[in-house]
Each structure stands twice: as structure tokens, then as C-alpha cells.
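Our consortium's second objective concerns turning raw sequence data into structural hypotheses that experimental partners can test. To show how far this objective has progressed, the report includes one record in full. It was chosen at random from the queue rather than selected for favorable results. The single chain below, 127 residues long, was entered without modification.
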Amino acid sequence: MGNVCSKSSNPTDPFAQPGRVLGSQPAPADTTTPLIRNNEPSKSHTTGGRALGGGGNAGGSSDARSAAARAAEERAAKHSAAAGKGKLSSQLAAQKAKSRNETLEDVSRAEREARDVQNADETRKWN
């Protein structure tokens, strides 16, 4: 809280000097500092890009496509090799192979079996 009420030692503070009236001329600029200009011409950067609308370099894109295809094949081969690792992965593969209707039928069958077990238990308790 002390620096809120203290004076700033920074001379470039714009609020340290009194202001000016609206419509008056700004303070004259310091003419002792010469302006520095860049006399070098601007350098244009040329890169290996293609011109817009042109046919371009078809060989480069086919190389990228073939590299992407090779990488995708390697990932697929690695994934298929990992799929045959054990019991859980084979169960997961079988579950993924089922259609939506088959999955719903399995769930329905499990629910019916659970209801039958519950009804049998209630019947046993009744007698």
C-alpha cells in the first residue's frame, strides 16, 4: 500500500507532468535526438513453395501420400498383432463384431433370466 501514496521516481510517467487544454498544440518534440531510418531495401524471402493455381509438384504430394499409407499399414499391423494377445482382447473383438440388434438381444436375455431368478426366489419365500 505504500507505493500507492508515494511519489514515483520514474520520470517517464505521463501523469507526473501537468496536462494540457483540449485543442492546444502538443508539446514540441525533442529535436536533439536524430531520427534513425533504415536505408536498406526490404529483402523478399523466397521459399520452396508453389505458385497459386499451378499444377505444383505432384511428386511431393504422392510421396507424402505413400508415406502416410505406409504408416497407416504399420499401425494396422501393430494393432492386429496386439488384438490376439489374450482372453480379454478376444472377448472385446467378439463384442465389437456384434451388431446393435444382437447386443440388445443379449441384454434382453440377461434381464429376463434375472427376472426369472427373482420370481423363483419370491416363490420359494412365499411357501
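The partners drew two points from this record. The chain has a mean pLDDT of 78. The CA atoms of residues 46 and 52 lie 15 Å apart. Both points have been shared with the crystallography group to help prioritize constructs.
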